Amino acid sequence: MASKRLNNLWKRLNRDPTMKFLYSEFLREYKNLNHMEEITNCNHSNDGYFLPHQGVLRPSSITTKFRVVFDASAKTTTGYSLNDLLCAGGVLQDDLFSILTRFRKHQYAFTADISKMFRQIEINPSKRKYLKIYGKKDLKRMSSKSRVAPIKSVTIPRLELAACLLLAQLTRKVLNALKLKIDQVLLLTESTTALSWTDTPPHLLKTFVSNRVAQIQELTKEYHWTHITSKNNKADHLSRGIDAQCLVNNQFWFQEPDSFNSLNSETELNQSDKNYLSEFKSKDSVCLTVKTSALFDDVICISNNFQKLIRIISLIFRFIYKCRKNSKECGAPSKTERQNTEIYILREVQVKEPLAMKFTALNSVVM
């Protein structure tokens, strides 16, 4: 019965990080004050009783806003509770009227509150077996969260980035619930690719990665991301898949981290990795070239017969002349036209490389 109620209590605490924190702090104080002690060798005999317990939160209370109540009236499978079997003693103190009457006898009177008075009682060791409780030790792990991978095929680096976003959202939710001053928040990921993306401007990345990186940077701008090896990554058990019974018996999952000093906060990130570069927006360069050619360049390619070229160019010049002067000259090019055309061809050839610079220099000297 006590174990079942503890499991139900734990489910409720996992849904409320603030309540869980206060509950753990209360029981930790209980133990530190030596008001209870841990049972190292528990004898699960029928002779004894486990007290169910629950938390009571009263934000309006001035003295104690949160306390744990132990339910000695909860009935066991036998149909009896601890209170049913206790021998209730008589009333030891006087009635309130008598106490107040004696209070007036003296000129001066003092009142004082005894802190945790009802715990200041030494319990006979033979009777302590009736005041046992079940508890779970989870002081370091405030909360955890996992998510099933999507049915749609997604690359491993993208899934790891989604896990980073899940961690960022969970961290923000827990810290907002606690409302405590935290000196340092360290976020760990096994993926160096995802770690590189979180430090990259989102506008340089493709849509899927860009949206998640932007959310991560917004949620964790005051926190520090670093790398953790697969060997030390507890979340790796969930991502690889593990049944509930194996997880319960897994000591590595439940043990507290010894130290964070071994973490390499200066992990060298390989930003030339193909997985990292594959999510960058592609920059397509388009090169346009324009080729300019003169009339001479187009005509000279028509034939490799020099006389034929002279005749063709001569007819072109005649056409231009007729358009300007309204001339009616016709027939084959004259000797004068052919000579002028030949001079034109020779000049055009000289202007071309490699004689262009010399031709320009000669013209400048003549001028």
UniProtKB/TrEMBL annotation:
GO terms for biological process: DNA biosynthetic process. Pfam families: Peptidase_A17. InterPro entries: DNA/RNA_pol_sf, Retrotrans_Pao. This is Peptidase aspartic putative domain-containing protein. It comes from Araneus ventricosus (Orbweaver spider).
